[in-house]
Amino acid sequence: MRIVVLLKAVPVVGNEKLVDGWRVDRSAGLEANGNDEYVLEAGLKLIEQHGGELVTLTMGPTPALEAIRKALAMGAARAVHVQDPALAGSDALATGRVLAAALSRMEYDLVFVGADTSDGQGGVVGAAIATRLGSPYLSYAARIEPDPSAGTVRVRRISATGYDVIEAPMPALVAGTQLLGEPRYPSLRGIMQARSKQIATWSLADLGIDASSVGSGASLTDVDSATPPPARAGATVVRDAPDVAAERIVEFLAARRLI
Amino acid sequence: MTSQVPFYPLAPVLFVLSVIAFGLQMARHLRVFEAAHPSVVTDRIGDRVRSALVYAVAQVRMFRDTRAGVMHAAIFWGFVVLTIGTANRVTWGLVEAILAWPLDGWIWRVVVAAGQLLALAVLVAIVYATFRRLVTRPQRITLSRDALLILVLIAGIVATELVAEAFRLARYGDPYQAATLVSYPLGRVIAAPFSPSAQQVVFGITWWANIVLVCAFLVYLPGSKHLHVATAFFNTAFRKLAPRGELPPMDLESETATFGVRAIADLGWKDLLDGFTCTECGRCQSQCPAWATGKPLNPKTFIMGLRQMAVDAESGVPLLPRMPRVPWIRPSDAPGRPAADRAAVPDATALSRPIVDAAIPYDAVWDCVTCGACVEACPVTIEHVDKIVGLRRNLVLEDSRFPAEVTAAFTNMERHGNPWGQPRSARLDWAKGLPFEVPVAADLLAATGTARGGASGANGTSAATGGAPGADGGSGAGLPVDVLYWVGCAAAFDDRNRRVARAFATCLHEAGVRFAVLGEEESCSGDPARRMGNEYVYQMLAQANVETLNRYAPPAIVTTCPHCFNTIANEYPEFGGRYRVVHHSAYLARLVAEGRLHPATAEAAATATTEAAATADEPAGEAASRAVTYHDSCYLTRYNGVVEEPRAVLAAIPGVELREMERHGRQSFCCGAGGGRMWMEEQRGVRINAERTRQALETGAETIATACPFCLVMMRDGVADAAAAGAAGPGVQTIDIAELLAAGLPTTAGAEASADAEVQA
User: Which chain B residue is nearest to residue A31, measuring alpha carbons?
Assistant: First the structure.
């Protein structure tokens, strides 16, 4: 079984900063996107179960290496890092084009992607890639069960009322959620082994993509304005004994018709 | 004398053979030591000799349990003196010949008399020990065949000696019979009715019984838990002399070594000696808060388990090369073991067998609060905590195996520099609303223009430059302050502990101390990561903190957290961070002693800072006395010996009546949050904080004073639970000593009010 996990490096949640008033600062302090870690964990478990190889695919600037190294420490066999100065400012559509081009140069049975990312929160790149590759797209996966002998993958997709069980032939692209389970904490042994694992760096030229077709200039999405959220309004701190406190919280919520 | 013994020359021969059997078995133990890691025991010789004299000869820790201590001393000294007699008996009376020569034989008379009295004392002690094991049965003692057999052997050796001597004196008499204080009169009673030949027969039988028992004891000893008579001296001499709060260093760069401790081969040989010294007395067990609250951790069975693993590893090694099996020496030498197994080196499989789930259950490894009560209790200086942390290191660094909830704490320390996962930018939120400014180190340096560039500001000399309250700090090289307040994550981010930081800062301000804080430049000291076995995250945090601290070169550092205190003082030197570190209890005690702080009454203190709304209405100002109990923090008291200072602070507050719990000072009972337990769920057994709260409430105190942020939270929660269950009155409060002290200071009332208003706005 060959699994590619799309791994995005995002600013540490809560520490996001904007440059030029609109672009997310990716110059330092990046970590692996939370949802991507869930699908990575699911992928690692599947490899443990079925054998094979898990490779991560990342598009991002040099500081993304920290997230890539963590994925390798967690157990990914190797990593592909698409990096090119011309990529800065790419929107979801451009990102999908680049990652689809990279994937078409790789061999895989399954591609895993997090349901969305904590910085962009678009949640459309996975679908965009699947569309370009013409492969099945199974979203909001809470459980992923491939059947290598039958060449199919079955996914439990969460819906508003419960879950659907959907199945598709492989190769397929699966977007996963937190319900897949907590990611493992890399051991020091894993961190040391990761140092000798291969990280292939691909440029736009390697992928045969014209630099003018990606990046902020070529993106169809424009950011009109970006503002940090207003400082949190004054919080009410209840310091009473538990029984009194519970009453006061109920009163507070009831007064606002929240319960 | 020896001429009176039938077949005498056989006795020395038997004895020498027994000594050889003893020596060969001991040598086999050493083969396992050889397979373990080296332990450094050759430094600080003077301290080591002193340690052996204090712990192995004077046995000071044995007397904490007075009756057991006296009993043990009787047996020990009896054994020492009776050994002189034994030596005499197997050397054709050589010892007597030497000792009886000077001073007209008075030295020998004293030895004989002392031996006789001590023999009697040993018999009494043995009776008491047997009674304890079989009748009163203290919980800490394991009832085993081994233990009873040893008691029988000792009793037999002493009794046969007394009886043999009684019949010998009755039959032959002796120039020193007047000094034979027990046997001579005894002989006149029990031996007199017999004929001389019958006396000779009884003498011969009992004399030989005595020698045979002595030899049996020697041969039996190396496989028995009683081996401590041979190892305790060495174990106490080779004990850990580094600060007790300093965990063993660890090389994270080694590609080949096992991280931490997985098997006994990963331990130092001193750790194995610990196992061979353990006598199963169970003092560790009786002090262990995890065991006391029904958890699977038992420090005694852990150490005995390690010993068993070492014994298993050596069991295939023959006593002599190509030696036939000797079934009666060790059960493991019994027939049935294939001869091919018998190699000259310890069994590699046994040496590399995982300790976890063999000597100690997996859950128990994580139940340890690293409080060190076991280490403090052990009469023969066994180190339990370092080994448990070694196991955790292996589980974390090699296998990533730890309670699930710990992941968040690890990740938070790694990413945010604090286990709570709060943003760095919130580090100074605790100071908001204080009526005075809390200076930040970076701003101070920028303002005074004395910044020392980069990380090159090595600081090895600040320890000598004072930094005591009132000393003229700012030696020109570092920060222009008297002291740097290391706030710690708990006081920076935990709502309850922010009040402690405010109270302590108020005390400093009120006393006119020039201080500063690091603000966003401060990170977790790394203590929780280190104690949970994550040496990788610990070293990352420690190195960054040492770099920051060296840049500012503060004349002294004061902490409100005993864990930060312990790590910065005892563990940062390894990374080149040598500072004068003071805990806030000691700092406040000095400010009070120097007359720089004038505490208000305890009643005012209680009213001004109480958490419970119920007591806020109580009339203030009256100097009524208030019963306060003080809960000692393990890392302050046991690990660093700060016992009197917090009590001095309490004593300085008018109206405080200190009521000690039974377990206080170095025998304190952990709150349950040490060793990273603050970030773990406690699902097994009773909650440790509930048990400690019960002990605190038992004193009848209305106030539980603490000097540690974790203790404060644990005791507060314990009191809240007890109040909900009706076991504590609504007026019982948990409070840091700094808050008690600050409460009556002029700056305080307004500060707390405005701080509350701010968070409630």
Answer: B415
The candidate with the shortest Cα–Cα distance to B667, out of B370, B293, B373, is: B373
Q: Give yes or no for a contact between A38 and A178, defined as CB atoms under 8 angstroms apart.
A: yes
Do residue B611 and residue A234 have CB atoms under 8 angstroms apart? no
Q: In terms of residue numbers, what domain contains A149?
A: 2-218
Tell me if A14 is assigned to some domain.
Answer: yes
Tell me whether residues B252 and A188 touch, CB distance under 8 A: yes
The most distant pair of C-alpha atoms in chain A lies apart, rounded to whole Å, by 67
Looking at this predicted complex, what is its ipTM?
Answer: 0.82
Pairing state between β A137-147 and A110-114 = unpaired
Contacts of A235 in chain B (CB under 8 A): 759
Phi/psi at B258 (nearest 5 deg)? -75, 130
Residue whose tokens read 């949970």: B532
A246 inside domain: no
pLDDT digits (tens, 9 = 90+) for A71-123: 999 999 999 999 999 998 889 999 999 999 999 999 999 999 999 998 888 89
| CATH number for A49 | 3.40.50.620
In this predicted structure, the answer to whether residue B747 has a pLDDT above a threshold of 70 is no
In this predicted structure, the answer to whether residue B111 has a pLDDT above a threshold of 60 is yes
d(CA B350, CA A95): 55
A245 in a structural domain: no
Mutant choice from A15, A16, A37, A185 vs B, greatest count of B C-beta within 10 A: A185
Residue A115 counted as domain residue: yes
Q: What is the value of pTM for the model shown?
A: 0.87
Torsion of CA A91, A93, A98, A101, to 10 degrees: 180
Q: Which two tokens stand for residue B369?
A: 């609060």
Q: Report the number of distinct structural domains present in chain A.
A: 1
Vertex A115: Cα angle to A223 and A220 (nearest 5): 25
- pLDDT value of position B368: 97
Cα–Cα distances (Å) from B182 to A49, B100, B179, B187, in that order, read: 78, 20, 9, 9
Residues paired with B37 in a beta bridge:
B268
Strand partners for A172: A110
Q: Categorize the per-residue pLDDT at A56 as very low, low, confident or very high, splitting at 50, 70 and 90.
A: very high
From chain B, the residues in CB contact with A188 under 8 A are 252, 259, 396-398, 535-536
The residues on A that touch B, with CB distances below 8 Å, are 12, 14-15, 31, 182, 184-192, 234-237, 239-244
Residue B611's Cα: distance from chain center in Å?
34
